[in-house]
Amino acid sequence: MLRLDGRVVLITGLGQQDGKSNVWGIGAAIAVLFARQGGKVFGGNRSFASAMVTKNRIEKEGGVCDVMETDVTSSASVKTLVDACMKKHGRIDILVNNVGRSEPGCPATMSEEVWDSQVELNLKSVYLLCHHVLPIMEAQGSGAVVSIASIAGMRYIGKPQVGYSATKAAIMQFMKATAVIYAEKGVRLNTVVPGLMDTPYTKGMVARYVKDGGSEEFMKMRNQQVPMARMGDAWDVANAALFLCSDEAKYITGQKIVVDGGITSFTGKPLKL
Ligand SMILES: NC(=O)c1ccc[n+]([C@@H]2O[C@H](COP(=O)([O-])OP(=O)(O)OC[C@H]3O[C@@H](n4cnc5c(N)ncnc54)[C@H](OP(=O)(O)O)[C@@H]3O)[C@@H](O)[C@H]2O)c1
């Protein structure tokens, strides 16, 4: 079940700061899990050093992984990544669009510069990877693409981040529309929609969003927001991504799996009975 033997997996944002930490980034967890399932991972990441941490972890387990420094907002950089993967493996079976980041602000407080950077990093990156990879998958007659969105693209989740919310919502529709266009070509496109996860990125959010409170208070608040009373982790997201990229999901396209401990099923205001 859920094997990816011999499949070539192109993934963005697989870096990790620390090779010993048990708190995993989503891209790193996906790369490791897909390699454990037999996939040959080829990753592009902003920092080469942090991508090497993930590569070393995969190789230590006997898996296959190559990494490159890549800026997913640059078409030239993405093309270089895709070309290098093709040169090495001659095909791309799976594409995982993982890079994303939230910046605080409502339309009045967010600068135009931050707005543009949110669109570039979260949305244009998905377009660029698909732009360069989908023709390859079409020529192969097969492929699976998964993009990582966020429940912030479905609901207001308690903090102003309009650039993030809008771009993550756009990813879901981009994937749905493209899935229909590519359905007859043998290429499936689906989205994983994480809720509140505990990753290194979450820790970094404290500095951007919390004025006075510390990290512990912020994490406690996030746990309390979830009906399951705890954040999820990178592996919860990776497991959903693996299913969508596997043959077990061969009749699923244009869909999303929400991995959120129940938040989006909840109004957020329980009755006090
Ligand atoms: N964590 C959550 O609670 C949560 C919830 C919902 C959705 N998500 C989504 O899940 C995805 C992954 O989140 P995460 O928590 O795993 O984040 P993360 O730990 O910060 O990982 C992001 C990765 O993307 C890389 N990156 C950043 N900018 C890049 C660029 N321009 N080009 C190439 N690579 C770049 C980073 O590289 P460096 O190594 O250089 O830093 C890092 O390896 C994002 O799309 C995020 O929006 C996260």
Written account of the structure:
It is built from 8 helices and 7 strands, in the order βαβαβαβαβαβαααβ. Strands 3-2-1-4-5-6-7 form a 7-stranded parallel β-sheet, sandwiched between helices. The protein is an alpha/beta fold and 273 residues long. It has helices at 26-36, 48-60, 75-89, 112-140, 162-182, 200-209, 215-225, 234-245, and strands spanning 8-12, 40-45, 64-69, 94-97, 143-148, 187-194, 256-259. Helix 1 (26-36) runs parallel beside helix 2, helix 3 runs parallel beside helix 4 and helix 4 (112-140) runs parallel beside helix 5. The longest helix has 29 residues, at 112-140. The structure holds NADP nicotinamide-adenine-dinucleotide phosphate (NAP).
User: Ligands in the structure?
Assistant: NADP nicotinamide-adenine-dinucleotide phosphate
Order of helices and strands: EHEHEHEHEHEHHHE
Helix-residue proportion: 40-55%
Give me the CATH fold name.
Rossmann fold
InterPro entries: NAD(P)-bd_dom_sf, Sc_DH/Rdtase_CS, SDR_fam
Protein name: Probable dehydrogenases with different specificities (Related to short-chain alcohol dehydrogenases)
GO molecular function: oxidoreductase activity, acting on the CH-OH group of donors, NAD or NADP as acceptor
Pfam families: adh_short_C2
Name its key features:
binds NADP nicotinamide-adenine-dinucleotide phosphate; 7-stranded parallel β-sheet; 45% helix; alpha/beta; 273 residues; Rossmann fold
